[in-house]
Amino acid sequence: MSLRSDLGRVRGLGSAKDGTAHWWAQRVTAVALIPLSIWFIYSAVTLVGIDRAGFKEWLNAPGSILLMSLFVIALFHHMQLGLQVVVEDYVHTERNKIVLLVLNKLTAVFLAVSSIIALIKVAFGG
Amino acid sequence: MSTGNRPLSPHLQIYKPQITSVLSILHRMTGVGLAVGALMLVYWLNAAAYGPEAFERAQSFLAHWFGRLLLFGWTWALFFHLCNGIRHMFWDAGLGLELPQVRATGWFVYIASIVLTFLAWAAGYGMLGGS
Fold first, then answer.
1. Cβ contact A86–B59 (<8 Å)
2. Residue A42 sits in a domain of what CATH number?
3. Which of A122, B7, B117, B118 has a 20 to 30 Å separation from B69 between CA atoms?
4. Least CA distance to B93: which residue of chain A?
């Protein structure tokens, strides 16, 4: 049994058991996503109905693969941070919560890396 | 920590929906919806990496009425989450926190998200030449 009071033990700790790092990361990725998502919507509109050859040509145009890579990195980091809060708010069974939080992180990394490899394959492959 | 038997705040259904509370939950709901949309993006990119036939299948799914409905929903969700996210940043900077301002920016964000969605889709149909 701890002699520390309940308040003393939780002071400075959110439900994620850390301080402001999560909050800041969410804001920084959000700032990055403002120009990147506007660029993505603009690009998606110009790519409506495109075939693979056209998509490859677009991806090889200056900036496309760089901005797409930055977009998916910021997107999946931001997604992971947001979904983490949703899990922390609604999942109250400790075991389920931890499983979901770990899955959330691993899935986000998997999706980001998978997207970037796909972009490289299209841009530099056949 | 002893948390048993603390009084709970009234359930959400008790309160009349207001622009503030509705936009707050919409921000979370569009966020979760966009996470699903991100899965579609990963599928679409990987289809392109797999080859022309796989990409053709992905494109024809998105061109189908159901695919278009999903894309339309994701377009609105993205614009809403983007605009409301910028609204949140102003709050983080300590701006626009008076209730009348919060309501006004809320309605502005809501209407802007709808207008931007229709503009993007008008431009998209323009790319297709109206088909």
1. no
2. 1.20.1300.10
3. A122
4. A27
